[in-house]
Design brief:
Blueprint lengths: L1 H21 L7 E5 L4 E7 L4 E7 L13 E8 L5 E7 L5 E12 L2 E12 L11 E10 L2
Antiparallel strand pairs: 1-2, 1-8, 2-3, 3-4, 4-5, 5-6, 6-7, 7-8
Biotin binds next to strand 6, strand 7 and strand 8.
Length: 143
């Protein structure tokens, strides 16, 4: 009876270990596209979680500008589903966007669920709120 209990416990521990080994890890690095059609590449992540890359937005608040690829810079907190924050310094517009979010991987696939805040340069503090936008984007991995 004692051997039976030890054997069952070992089997259970083995199954838990196997499950943890198979648990998917969400990886920020790579090419991503959001529901607006914007493309983002996270190219380098250093050992402290700091990363850089580029962002090509599909939309802009500006009229008559040529959209250009812009640099991103951010940091992630390591986990199987890491949280992160990054900003995009738009090279073609006097504005900046800060994103925060989490990388999820489950039956709906690998994705970055984000919220963002865009701040454009206002002429004066009276226009501060008018020059601020907020929203959310979901990015899916491009293969
Ligand atoms: C600007 O219009 O001033 C710069 C481009 C802003 C693009 C925004 S950032 C949040 C949202 N998500 C995107 O992919 N593009 C827009």
């Amino acid at each position: 009876m004692k051997n039976m209990i030890i054997f069952s416990t070992l089997i259970l521990l083995f199954q838990v270990a196997l499950y943890n080994c198979n648990a998917e890890k969400c990886d920020l690095k790579g090419k991503w596209k959001n529901e607006l059609g914007s493309n983002m590449t996270i190219s380098v992540i250093d050992k402290n979680g700091y990363f850089s890359g580029s962002y090509l937005t599909a939309v802009t608040t500006q009229k008559k500008v040529e959209i250009k690829k812009s640099p991103i810079s951010g940091v992630m907190v390591p986990s199987s589903q890491p949280i992160f924050a990054f900003h995009v310094n738009w090279t073609f517009s006097d504005s900046i966007t800060a994103f925060t979010g989490q990388c999820f991987v489950d039956s709906s696939g690998e994705r970055l669920e984000t919220m963002w805040l865009l701040k454009a340069i206002a002429g004066s503090s009276d226009d501060n709120w008018a020059s601020t936008r907020v929203g959310s984007n979901v990015f899916r991995r491009l293969i």
